[in-house]
Design brief:
- The chain has 119 residues and is mainly α.
- It has a domain of 82 residues: Winged helix-like DNA-binding domain superfamily/Winged helix DNA-binding domain (Arc Repressor Mutant, subunit A), CATH 1.10.10.10.
- Helices cover 70% and strands 12% of the residues.
- A 3-stranded antiparallel beta sheet has the order 1-3-2.
- Strand 2 and strand 3 form a beta hairpin.
- The radius of gyration is 20 Å and the shape is elongated.
């Protein structure tokens, strides 16, 4: 049982890391660009950004620590790409929360429509 709880806590922390990383507008914009345009260098990602290339690299490091972004060296360039599996995990997590809310709203609707049960 303890190992299950430990794993749940670890999974929750990984998801929290993802949402922390996505909680910044600049990082969210970087993720959006990587989704739309594929792997890119920090130099290319800094074009038309409101922050410096060095700031972009720091933001990419936060995304990489959350395992949302991976990097690959190609010659002299380092290309950053999105790890879509991590976004899928975050999406599934939010889907679970949404399903819980849907069930709660369904129970509330039943109570409103039929009255409370006599449990």
């Amino acid at each position: 049982m303890s190992s299950e709880i430990d794993q749940t806590i670890a999974d929750d922390q990984h998801i929290a890391d993802v949402f922390f990383a996505l909680g910044d507008g600049t990082r969210l914009a970087l993720v959006q660009r990587l989704v739309e345009q594929g792997a890119q260098s920090a130099t290319r990602l800094s074009v038309n950004a409101h922050v410096t290339r060095q700031a972009i690299i720091k933001h990419l490091l936060v995304l990489e620590n959350a395992r949302l972004v991976v990097h690959e060296r190609r010659g002299r360039e380092v290309l950053y790409a999105l790890d879509r599996q991590r976004l899928d995990q975050a999406h599934a997590f939010l889907g679970g929360i949404a399903a819980g809310w849907d069930r709660a709203i369904g129970r509330l609707r039943d109570i409103v429509e039929t009255g409370p049960s006599d449990n």
